[in-house]
Amino acid sequence: MKRLLLPLITFGLLCTAQPLHAGSWTDGLFDWLSSWFSSEPAPTEPPPVALTPAQLDSLQSSPLGRMLSLVPQSDTLAVGATWPFESLTPAIDLERHNRLLRETVVLTRPAGRLPYLQIPALRVIYRQDQRPEHFLAIARRFTSVQELPYEESLPQLLPTASPLPTVVLADDPVGSSPFNADWYQQLFGLPIGAVTFLHFGDPALLGDFPQDWTLLNTPMRCKETEVILAQAIFGAELIDGRLARSTAHFSAGTGYRLGAVRGGFRLPELLGIDRERFADIDYHINRGIRYRAMPGAQLVVLKDGHVVYEKAYGNHVYRQQAVDPGDLYDLASVTKAAATSLAVMKLYDKGAIDLNARVRDYLPEFKKKAIGGYRVEQLLAHHTGLQSDIPLNGLLSKKIVADLEDAAFSLPIAQNRWMATEVPGLVAANVLGRIDYTSRPVYRYSDLNFYLLQLIVEAAAGEPMEELLQREFYLPLQLGKLGFRPTEKFPLERLVPTVVDPWMRGGLVRGYVHDEGAALLGGVAGHAGLFGNAHDLARLFQMLLDGGTYAGRELLSPETVALFTDRNRYNYRALGFDRLAGGWRGVINEGAAETTFGHTGFSGTSVWADPENDLVYVLLTNRIHPDPKNERFQTMDIRGKVHRAIYRALNTWEVVM
Q1: How many angstroms separate the CA atoms of 452 and 455, rounded?
Q2: What is the largest CA-CA distance in the chain?
Q3: Using CA atoms, how far apart are residues 154 and 64, in angstroms rounded to an integer?
Q4: Domains and CATH numbers, the chain
Q5: Residue 316 pLDDT more than 60?
Q6: Could you report the per-residue pLDDT of 570-588, keeping only the tens digit for each?
Q7: How far apart are CA 61 and CA 125, in angstroms?
Q8: Pairing state of beta strands 121-126 and 144-149?
Q9: How far is CA 350 from CA 29, 347, 354, 547, 560, in A?
């Protein structure tokens, strides 16, 4: 009998399937032997309960089911978070951040799974009583987020939902929590694709996990670790920690490197900036709001590719609706740099546009016109001598607008106000026949130059300029809040108003371009029409500082970026960009490089990129509300004062490595 028993035991152990989180092999052996001598059959796992169509319909119509069915854009647009988070003791927060970053460990190989670079949305699952507020706030800066507090019905609903990259956050129950420590095990084995599991606490509490799950562990849950992990999964924070001691499932020294491939959010002190020095920025902007230079503002400062300061101030209109960092502003002439110039750069890279070619080479209708002799390079440099504005003779009239949409009035120009369908063609006819120009090319800032550049871009590309920009820049950079005609994508409450125009527009202009020329062209023009928020605009210019590269992908060649952002051969400007060297001596005296390039806009917007200091500064306002004749913004020099305050804050904190 003894000779027979040993082979039986060995055979039984080999054949017995062990469940997740199984006990020791001796426990398994004891249970298996007991089953031989017990009169009761061995327990088996109950088969999964199949839902009837009625039960499934009921679950899908529940609040959780409705949450699973969509990722509402309006929720992700309002990010509601500024940076850095408020702190009473930055030095202590900095020390804790550095320590927790060192102790954060990637426990399983992330290759092929992380980081998330090009995803439409992220699904985040967490325990109901542990909403990761700071994690969600930062994650929403990279993509749209669908957040799901865990409920018992979730495992049944998840397989029926649209597939999305999924993150599960968990830590140990505290106090009298009704939740079990292993609630997330109910998600094991579900056909929901690869999952990233973020654990806060002791790694010894982690057991067996599905092989397609990626595990990260950090010692505790706090704002620092939530921010670290949120950035890490999107490739904006380097994780390279190692386990200090062995656990039942991981040996000491375990840890995989998860690299940083794009900019994220950094505590100012990590980059040599004492955040208290930013108080001067707040003072100047808030003073401008108080003196009605503008109702509100957005500000972003990037240093070394990372956001070190981001804030929203004031309201959309005076005393109504606070500005959110995700709201969109009318960028006005910043369009020239953030849209048209980029399109020309891309086509120049591809050999589709020659800077020495003339207007008539792309636009045959100008062949017999003096304007046809200007070079593309001259248009970019504003060195043509053309009149400043697009000729709108005879078009600014109530006759071209109507309160009802029909075939004759089909172009929206304001809320509940439509423009005659023929108007853009009439604008083009005016340009052909009513242009003032000088006898020889001279420097004169002109919207006409960029109207012509848009036509050249579209002729050379064979497609609308906005489609080229979306495909080649805004989508690869994940700039979801940068584009033309924003009312087609976003709710009005997220669009910051500009002027009040009761004559042609019927009242408050919100979500429709203020510039009359761009408006009469249908909202998309080479000189104006772009809308965006400060964050997306800053990221776009950081790509230029990085030589045309983003997250390892080359969007423009470094040679093209250098050519277009350097001084042109005609005047002080760059090709398509303004330069600080043209009149911002006060900012240069504070440390800004003369090679700094960017652009400003009539609505009170500005963006500047400094290659030598690797710094990007964006300030967006709607100073033209309610009246574009408001000059307080310029007379108070708010843009210049804020810009100078940023440079005074640099190198004010000793970085300890």
Answers
A1: 5
A2: 115
A3: 8
A4: 62-262 (3.40.50.1700), 279-649 (3.40.710.10)
A5: yes
A6: 999 999 999 998 888 899 9
A7: 19
A8: parallel
A9: 70, 5, 10, 16, 10
- 244 CA to centre of own chain: 36
Contact 179, 147 (CB under 8 A): no
Token duo for residue 458: 């579209």
User: Could you write out the three-class secondary structure of 520-567?
Assistant: HCCCCCCCCCEEECHHHHHHHHHHHHCCCEECCEECCCHHHHHHHHCC
Amino acid (one-letter) located at 595: T
DSSP for 247-298, please give it.
-SSS-TT--B-B---S--B--GGGGT--GGGGHHHHHHHHHHHHTTS-SEEE
Alpha-carbon distances, residue 151 vs 82, 145, 195, 215 (angstroms)? 31, 18, 18, 22
Residues 6 or more apart in contact with residue 369 via CB below 8 angstroms: 360, 432, 435
Q: Residue 213 pLDDT > 50, yes or no? A: yes
**Binning pLDDT at 50, 70 and 90, where does residue 37 land?**
very low
Instruction: For residues 478 and 548, give the distance between their C-alpha atoms in angstroms, rounded to a whole number.
Output: 15
Host H or E run for residue 149: strand 144-149
- Between the two ends of the chain, the Cα-to-Cα distance in Å is 70
Q: Output the pTM of the full model.
A: 0.89
Residue 566, φ and ψ in degrees, nearest 5: -90, 170
Task: Please enumerate in sequence order all residues whose Cβ is within 8 A of that of 639, keeping only pairs 6 or more positions apart, or say none.
Answer: 600, 606, 619, 633
Q: What is the pLDDT of residue 25?
A: 38
Predicted local confidence at residue 514, as pLDDT: 97
β-sheet with 483-484: strand ranges across? 329-330, 530-532, 483-484
Let me know: does 346 contact 339? Beta carbons within 8 Å. Answer: no
pLDDT band at 75 (very low <50, low <70, confident <90, very high): low
**Identity of the residue numbered 258:** L
Q: Say which DSSP state 424 is in.
A: H
Amino acid at 139: A
- Among residues of the chain, what percentage have pLDDT more than 70? 88
Sign of CA dihedral 581, 587, 591, 596: negative
Q: Could you count the other beta carbons within 10 Å of the beta carbon of residue 332?
A: 27
**288, 294 in Cβ contact below 8 A?**
yes
Q: Are 260 and 304 in contact (CB under 8 A)?
A: no
Q: How far apart are CA 567 and CA 564, in angstroms?
A: 8
Nearest alpha-carbon partner for 115 in 250, 222, 262: 262
Give me the pLDDT at residue 44, please.
Answer: 35
